[in-house]
Amino acid sequence: GALAVTLLPLAPTTATAAPVVAQAPAKAAAPGTVAGGTTVHDSLFGEIGNTGYDVKHYGIALAYAADGSVKATTTIEATAKKKLSSFSLDLEGLTVDRVRVEGRTATFTRTGTKLLVTPARPTGKRFTVVVGYHGRPVTHIDPDGAQDGWVPSTTGATALSEPVGAQTWFPNNNTPRDKASFDVALTVPKDLAAAANGVLRSRTTKHGKTTWTWRQRQPMATYLSLVAIGDFDVYRSKVKLQHGRTISAWTFVQPSLGKAAAQRALLPKVLRFSEQQYGRYPFDGTGMVIQDLGVGYALETQSRPFFDGVPDDATLVHELAHQWFGDSVTPRDWGDIWLNEGFATYAEANWASEHGGPTTWQAFRKVYDANDTSSDLWKPAPNALEDPADLFGDPVYVRGGLTLEALRHRIGDEKMQTLLSTWARRQKGKSVRTSQFVALAEQVSDQDLGWFFRSWLEVTSKPVGY
Ligand code: ZN
Fold first, then answer.
1. pLDDT of residue 28
2. Could you tell me the distance, in angstroms and rounded to a whole number, from the CA of residue 314 to the centre of ligand 1?
3. Nearest CA to 212 among 224, 228, 200?
4. Is 63 exposed, middle or buried (0-12, 13-18, 19+ CB in 10 A)?
5. What is residue 36's predicted lDDT score, i.e. its pLDDT?
6. Nearest partner of 162 among 345, 305, 349, judged by Cα
7. What is the C-alpha separation between 258 and 279, in angstroms, rounded?
8. How many CA atoms lie within 13 A of 440 on its CB side?
9. CA atoms 343, 348, 353, 354: torsion sign
10. Residues in the chain with pLDDT < 70?
11. How far is the centre of ligand 1, averaged over its atoms, from the C-alpha of 320 (Å)?
12. Complex-level ipTM
C-alpha cells in the first residue's frame, strides 16, 4: 500500500515556482542528481508535464469490470538527461496502490493532479516505472466546459484525451511535447469490445473475459490516446493506400446507429485523397469509433478517430486530415493548436472543392466577406491565445484555415502543396512550434512572410485583404 511520506505541498505552477523536492525521508539527494520538475510551462496549461524525463514507451494493462471500475498497471519506460532523485507524473483521480522504479518499491504522494515519486535510489538515465492503481476513473471537465477523459457510456466507457484527459485513466507525462509508443491491453467482459490506438496484436478470451491488445508503434502524444469499451459491432477490413501499402482498418460502431456503411466506404477514399495532398499516411492502422457518447465533438484519436454519432463527410475528412496535422506532426505547446485545427479546416475545404462543393477560394472568401471587423471570428488571434477555453473556438478553426488559404494566394498552388507535404514529411512524429512552420513557408516560397503571419495569427483585428 501507499507509504505515508510527507512531502512539500506543490508550489503554485508559475515559471518561478521552486521544483518540488522530496524533503522526507531526510536522505539528501545523491550528488549529480536532480528533481524531475512538475511542469513544462505550457502557455495554456501551466500544470501539465515534467521536464526531467522523456517517455519512450507506455505499456498499459487495464481491466474493466461491468460495475464501471478499473484495475490497471501502467509501465513507463523513460530516459532522463540527469539521474532523478524524484519526479512527477500527471494523474487525476483513481487510487494508486504501488509504484516501483527499476524494480524497487518507491515512495509516492499525491497533490492536485501530480503523482510525486521518490525512488529508493536515484534513477538511471534510462529507467522503468510501474504504477499499479484502481478505481472509477473521473471525467475531466475542460476549460470550455466540454467533457473529456474517461466518459461512461450506456454499455461501457470511452476515454478521449484532448487536451488533458489522458491523466484520468493512466499516469503519464501529459504534454504534447513528449510522444511515445504505446501498448495497451484491455481486459473486458467477453460480451463487450475494446478499442484503442494502432493495430490489434491479439484478442484472447479466458474465464468470461476478453483481452484486446493494441499497439501504436509510431510516437503518440498522450492527448491522442483512445479507449472505447462497450457493445460495438466490430468491422475489420483492408485499406489499400495511395502508394500500394495495405493496412488494416478496425471500426467500432454502436449497433443502434446501423452499419455506418457509407462512412466505412468513404474512409479509404479520404485517406488516399489526403495522401495525394500531404504525403504518405503516417500510421500502420486505421479505423473509426462511432457512437452516441454525448460529448458533442469528434476527435482525431491517433489512427482511429472518434465520432460522436455517424459523421458527415466534412467531419470525417477533418479528423483524417488531423492524422497528418495534429497526430503525426504535433504542437509542442497548446498555444500552437491552430497547427491542428486550422489545417484540418483547410483540408475540409480542399475535399469539398474536389467533390462537388464550392471551391476553396469561394468557401473562404464567403467567410472573410461575411465577417466584418467587429466579428468575433477575429478574436482572439489563433496563435495568441491566452485562455484555454478558446482552444477549440472559431478563431482557431476558421481564421486558422483562412490563414492557409491566404497563404495559398500569396505563394501559389504549387508551392502550397510543396509546403504542406514537406511539413508533414519533415516533422513526422515530432512536436513543433508555429515559428518552424513560418520558417519552412519562407524557405519554400522564397518570400519574407513575417508580417503576413503576424497579421493573420497574432494581431487581434481582421487581417486586411488577401
Ligand atoms: Zn479538429
1. 57
2. 11
3. 200
4. middle
5. 84
6. 305
7. 33
8. 18
9. positive
10. 1-29, 31
11. 9
12. 0.99
